[in-house]
């Protein structure tokens, strides 16, 4: 949510030596078209299946982070023949009243604050105390985001928030029939593993859980090499199977 395909630059670059890597922008963000009305996570999963069709890709190992992990769950449920394996990173099974309030408040604040101020308000949910203690990390991350020519409009961000809040897979996850990796940071306070990783592991039949020590919700950036190593090992196991 609120992040385009460049979020995966480190992993896609590293894994491209052995795999065809595909990253893309969801509708309403990055270089994809803006839409005029509401949509759901299920709609985004159908978009992903449509992209595979256009690319002539019958099956894919699907990796999703945060909102993307919700999309990946729906892709496996709605289009099971397209998914070879799943890797669900720092994601969730459904929202709740507390989460609804937080996410909608972010949409409200985004309309009222500058990009720098919005980052100051929301990033403590994404990054850990140790992340903030890394010299230059926050400033460099902010500079990179401000330099993007594709900043998501506020109304598009609000539509993504509502899509995120519409997601609910609890009670349906038992239908996921592919090997599934659950990868979480043990200090993630936005999608805490004690709730969401365990909820996923309890329902997904072939789920394996790994946690990265000291990592928060932004682990694909803060612990990029560790995430890449886990994904490479996971994909290697899948090939062996």
What level of helicity do the residues show?
Answer: 40-55%
Tally of DSSP helical segments: 11
**Terminus-to-terminus distance:** 33 Å
The named CATH superfamily: Alpha/Beta hydrolase fold, catalytic domain
Backbone shape: globular
Q: Mean of residue pLDDT?
A: 97
Helix-strand pattern: HHEHEHHHHHEHEHH
- Main sheet properties: 4 strands, parallel
Under CATH, the topology is which?
Rossmann fold
- Write down how many β-strands occur, each being a DSSP E stretch of 2 or more residues: 4
Short structural description:
By secondary structure, the protein is α/β, with parallel strands linked by helices. The protein is built from 11 helices and 4 strands. The protein has a 4-stranded parallel beta sheet, sandwiched between helices.
Question: How would you characterize this protein structure?
Answer:
It is a single chain. The chain is an alpha/beta fold. The protein has a single domain (5-240), classed as Rossmann fold, CATH 3.40.50.1820. The chain is built from 11 helices and 4 strands, in the order H-H-E-H-E-H-H-H-H-H-E-H-E-H-H. It has helices at 9-15, 41-55, 67-78, 97-112, 115-122, 129-133, 137-146, 154-166, 196-203, 219-222, 224-240, and strands at 60-65, 83-89, 180-185, 207-212. Strands 1-2-3-4 form a 4-stranded parallel beta sheet, sandwiched between helices. Strand 1 (60-65), helix 3 and strand 2 (83-89) form a beta-alpha-beta unit. Helix 1 (9-15) crosses helix 11 and helix 2 (41-55) packs across helix 3.
Keywords:
11 helices, 241 residues, four-stranded parallel beta sheet
